[in-house]
């Protein structure tokens, strides 16, 4: 089976005020279908940069990146956006929900780009919200939901397209311990039960130890 994600000697340099910041200095690794990988490392070590690349939100300065078996170098912006929509789900620390939009509409949004009918989009969004335990919060807007509930809406939105990989960048970073643990348990259950590969950036040693694999980053490199 094709690996979900492959990075080979990937570099990412950010130009900044006439100098170059090397955020990733040649990183190689593979995410197989159904994997559970934790990425840890100090602030500034390149974790978010790597997640953006793996998710096709950004491109490498050098090196090779395959998403769902396809080399991103050969893809124009529209093809890359389509590949991202079909292959990747994202969960961010700060939820990134549309503020004036209900939970069900937030979750249905990625399906708009599939050209799916509104009735079908809504049906799938409701099913996914039920899956994350929010069947009773369909018409709530983000500011009418707790942080833990907002993150569960974001998880439903990430998974409504049935992606191969879920990329979660410090998904519990804005949550208290109890809500953080509930969100994590949900992500792990989705990995186990739906077979979606889970790549999670975390500061939490305990979380990292539960993953199948840990990747330790320092100064733009994988050190373990
Ligand atoms: N848009 C940007 N422009 C310039 N430098 C950046 C940019 N984004 C990140 N960096 C730098 O790249 C390095 C890695 O950042 P990041 O990937 O956000 O690390 P982490 O997520 O591990 O905290 C840091 O030194 C950071 O300051
Ligand atoms: Mg980060």
Order of helices and strands: EEEHEEHEHHHEHEHEE
DSSP, total strands: 10
**CATH architecture annotation:** 3-Layer(aba) Sandwich
Radius of gyration: 17 Å
CATH domain fold name? Rossmann fold
Q: State the distance separating the first and last CA atoms.
A: 26 Å
Fourth-level CATH superfamily: P-loop containing nucleotide triphosphate hydrolases
**Average predicted confidence as pLDDT:** 94
Please tell me the total number of domains: 1
The kinds of small molecule bound in this structure are: adenosine-5'-diphosphate, magnesium ion
> What is the molecular shape?
globular
Q: Percent of residues in helical segments?
A: 25-40%
List descriptors.
224 residues, Rossmann fold, four-stranded antiparallel beta sheet, 7 helices, 10 strands, binds adenosine-5'-diphosphate, binds magnesium ion, ATP binding, ABC_transporter-like_CS, nucleotide-binding, AAA+_ATPase
Briefly say what this structure is:
The protein has 224 residues and is of the alpha/beta class. It is 36% helix and 27% strand.
Polypeptide structure, described:
- The protein is of the alpha/beta class.
- Helix content is 36%, strand content 27%.
- The chain has seven helices and ten strands.
- The chain has helices at residues 47-54, 77-87, 103-112, 118-131, 147-159, 177-194, 205-210; strands spanning 5-16, 19-31, 36-40, 62-67, 70-71, 88-92, 165-169, 197-201, 213-218, 221-222.
- The strands form two sheets. Strands 6-7-8-3-9-10 form a six-stranded mixed β-sheet, sandwiched between helices.
- It is globular.
- This is ABC transporter ATP-binding protein.
- Residues 5-223 form the ABC transporter domain.
């Amino acid at each position: 089976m094709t690996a979900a994600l492959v990075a080979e000697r990937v570099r990412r340099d950010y130009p900044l005020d006439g100098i170059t910041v090397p955020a990733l200095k040649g990183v190689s690794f593979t995410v197989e279908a159904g994997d559970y990988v934790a990425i840890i490392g100090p602030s500034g070590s390149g974790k978010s940069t790597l997640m953006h690349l793996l998710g096709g939100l950004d491109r490498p300065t050098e090196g090779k990146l395959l998403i769902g078996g396809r080399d991103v170098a050969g893809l124009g912006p529209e093809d890359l956006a389509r590949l991202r929509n079909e292959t990747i789900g994202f969960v961010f620390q700060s939820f990134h929900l549309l503020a004036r939009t209900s939970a069900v509409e937030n979750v249905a949004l990625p399906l708009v780009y599939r050209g799916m009918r509104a009735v079908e989009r809504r049906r799938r969004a409701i099913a996914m919200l039920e899956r994350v335990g929010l069947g009773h919060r369909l018409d709530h807007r983000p500011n009418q939901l707790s942080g833990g509930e907002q993150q569960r809406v974001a998880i439903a939105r990430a998974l409504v397209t049935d992606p191969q990989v879920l990329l979660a960048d410090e998904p519990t970073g804005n949550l208290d311990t109890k809500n953080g643990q509930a969100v994590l348990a949900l992500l792990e259950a989705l990995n186990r039960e739906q077979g979606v590969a889970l790549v999670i950036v975390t500061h939490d040693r305990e979380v990292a130890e539960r993953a199948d694999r840990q990747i330790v980053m320092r100064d733009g490199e994988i050190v373990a």
